[in-house]
Design goal:
With about 350 residues, the chain is an alpha/beta fold. It has helices at about 60-65, 90-95, 115-125, 130-145, 160-175, 190-210, 220-225, 245-250, 255-260, 340-350, and strands spanning about 10-25, 30-45, 50, 75-80, 80-85, 100, 180-185, 210-215, 230-235, 235-245, 315, 320, 330. The strands form two sheets. A nine-stranded mixed sheet has the order 6-7-8-3-9-10-12-11-13, with helices on both faces. The two termini are about 20 Å apart.
Length: about 350
């Protein structure tokens, strides 16, 4: 008997986030900005999924939608068996301790009128029944975990450096013992010398506390260091989802190939990858192309690419690509099963036959 594989902690299916466009004197709804246009993926317990792509591709919108900081346009986000898109407000509030977020700008995400102890203790005040003494002790424990001196507890955010402010944000996210944390470009606003310290801290906390991360970044070198798998986004859709080492060694999607060619490699053996310069501009998310979103800039575009959008399909074990250049064997649907097997099972279930 083999043990069943663990269930994903986070299951995202056909997630869409559209922002309405209103125009004219009467402010009529004339269109939508398709920030996220139907993406699906899983995150396993203890895993770090990196989400990369150029500015404006929808990365941060995905992270906020996963925690329902935005109301979803369509799709589902199942975290620990509960679809947060359909939870009532009170049920969602009870679910909040399970899922937290580390924001991009540590200065903008901290209340300048609150002390460090008040910032870290606010989630405990809202979601726990700890006494003031126990709450202060928990605050000190969190400060120790992220490397902040306890003497700083009464200081205000403006008295800290950028790296220290981000540590405060991480401590606040850890206050309620979450299982899933969205890291929305947590190192983008930091000096290069501090970025490695924050990433090492996140990795250390993951090992000690069993955390699961969605790590959003445009820094491909840092994502390679921390992620187990990487999803490459382009104009609201996932172009490729692959294990980290396989993606960096041999990207399959033309956009992923172009993106990784821009990474400076200190290893001369890896620096032989030719630089790919894409022509043209990124289309507007309010008017995406009819076919593949990348068809207007792809150096290997075909007629079919301009006619229909390729599904995200498994072209190699564990590697999902949305591109017609590869034979599509397994479509990444709600279960990730091969389509033929899925259809056969559905037909048998309708006839009352168990598989």
């Amino acid at each position: 008997m083999f043990d069943a594989p663990p269930a994903p902690l986070v299951q995202v299916r056909d997630l869409k986030m559209y922002f309405p466009i209103y125009s004219g004197i009467l402010r009529r709804h004339t269109g939508d900005v398709r920030a996220v246009d139907g993406i699906s993926f899983d995150i396993m317990p203890g895993e770090t999924l990196g989400l990369v792509g150029e500015s404006g591709c929808g990365k941060s919108t995905v992270g906020r939608a996963l925690l329902r900081l935005y109301e979803l346009t369509a799709g589902s986000v199942v975290i620990e068996g509960e679809d947060i898109a359909r939870l009532a407000p009170e049920a969602l509030r009870r679910k909040r301790p399970t899922m937290q977020m580390v924001f991009q700008d540590p200065q903008a995400s901290l209340n300048p009128r609150m002390t460090l102890a008040e910032i870290i203790g606010e989630p405990l005040l809202e979601h726990s029944t700890l006494s003031p003494q126990d709450r202060l002790q928990r605050i000190y424990e969190l400060m120790d975990q992220v490397g902040l001196n306890r003497r700083f507890a009464t200081r205000f955010p403006h008295e800290f450096s950028g790296g220290q402010r981000q540590r405060i944000g991480i401590a606040r996210a850890l206050a309620l013992n979450p299982k899933f944390i969205v890291c929305d470009e947590p190192i983008a606003a930091l000096d290069v010398s501090i970025q490695a310290q924050v990433v090492n801290l996140l990795e250390d906390l993951q090992d000690r506390l069993g955390l699961t991360y969605l790590f959003i970044s445009h820094d491909l070198s840092m994502v390679r260091h921390i992620a187990d798998r990487v999803a490459v986004m382009y104009l609201g859709r996932i172009a490729e989802l692959s294990p980290r080492d396989a993606l960096y060694e041999r990207p399959l999607h033309p956009y992923a190939e172009a993106l990784l060619s821009a990474v400076n490699e200190p290893d001369p053996a890896l620096a032989r990858r030719p630089r790919i310069i894409l022509q043209g501009d990124v289309p507007s998310p309010a008017r995406p192309p009819v076919g593949c979103n990348f068809s207007t800039r792809c150096p290997r575009v075909m007629d079919i690419c301009r006619a229909s959008k390729p599904p995200l399909s498994e072209v190699e074990p564990g590697r999902l690509v949305a591109c017609y250049l590869y034979p599509q064997t397994t479509q990444a649907g709600s279960t990730g099963e091969p389509e033929a097997h899925k259809q056969e099972k559905d037909e048998r279930n309708q006839q009352g036959v168990k598989l």
